[in-house]
Amino acid sequence: QMWEEAIHICKELAEQYESHVFDYEMLSDILQREAKFYEKILKVLRPSPDYFAVGYYGQGFPTFLRNKVFIYRGKEYERREDFEMQLLSPFPNAEKLKSTSPPGQEITSSPGQSIQCFTVQPVEETKVRLKGRSIPEQITNFYKANHVQKFSYSRPFKKGPKDPDNEFANMWIERTTFTTAYPLPGILRWFVVTETTTAIISPLQNAIETMMKTNEKIMSEINRHQNDPSLPINPLSMLLNGIVDPAVMGGFAKYETAFFQETYLQEHPEDAGNIEKLKDLIAWQTPLLAEGIRIHGRKVTEDLRPFHERMEQCFTQLRAKVESQYGVREMVS
């Protein structure tokens, strides 16, 4: 299903048929096949594969595996449990490590075999020709999980005094980024990791990332429904309700109590710019929600009408609060 790659090959063949061997019958055939690939990109749903980091630790492994980490590309809809079973089958005596932290010397130097496996997220490299343009999600989705050489794993941890009422205030993230020898997918479904870096993400940076992802998710759902009115409404219902109904998720009120108090700014004056960024993301969420609820109201069935009206009431209150505190943002349709 890597039709983007097939299109490149079609273009190479078309150039040969048109300008070198003058076989117009084959040219016609290859152009028709190329057109079908473009159509499939837009119309056929392709599941994004999962990627797994696998570490082989201990002196019991052959040298090409010993104390090395590899990134594997999973098959369609492959669960991690199934992948692990296949992974462990050639090494029946290997111990499966439960922790995702890098193992200590007592494991790497031991005569036995220990295998570590966890899911990692592909880190998309922004393509220059796609940057800053409004492009259908079916086209951009391919590049989120293909031609990828960097993969990240985020491990949350608590630091500082515990706040029982607000876990966001001291929720830090340790993010490890793995770089493979070659981009995936390649001639193999797995490549060795050649570089590993670790960064610490503060609770405020984590809040900004979460808000950005939420806003992108709303925008993505809006675009999907505008491009295909026949889509089922349930995913949009759950997404919108989870944000606007305070009884479901609590919204972003936790961020306000964690980061927007005077005491936080006095203790962390260097975070002033990031606090403004978070406030701006909260303000921009309002027009996105308004558009999502408008689409939802247009498509909602009569039996779900009370649910929609409840969501509208919650949003009206939320909108008044956000616009009074963080200003009004207007979205260009």
UniProtKB/TrEMBL annotation:
Keywords: Guanine-nucleotide releasing factor
Record carries keyword Metal-binding: no
Any one GO biological process: myoblast fusion
One GO CC term on file: cytoplasm
Domain DOCKER, chain residue ranges per copy: 1-331
InterPro entries: DOCK (IPR026791), DOCK_C_lobe_A (IPR043161), DOCK_C_lobe_C (IPR043162), DOCKER_dom (IPR027357), DOCKER_Lobe_A (IPR046769), DOCKER_Lobe_B (IPR046770), DOCKER_Lobe_C (IPR046773)
Pfam families named in the record: DHR-2_Lobe_A, DHR-2_Lobe_B, DHR-2_Lobe_C
Presence of the UniProt keyword Membrane in the record: no
GO function terms (MF aspect): guanyl-nucleotide exchange factor activity; small GTPase binding
Membership in a protein family: Belongs to the DOCK family.
Protein name as catalogued: Dedicator of cytokinesis protein 1
Species the sequence originates in: Acanthisitta chloris
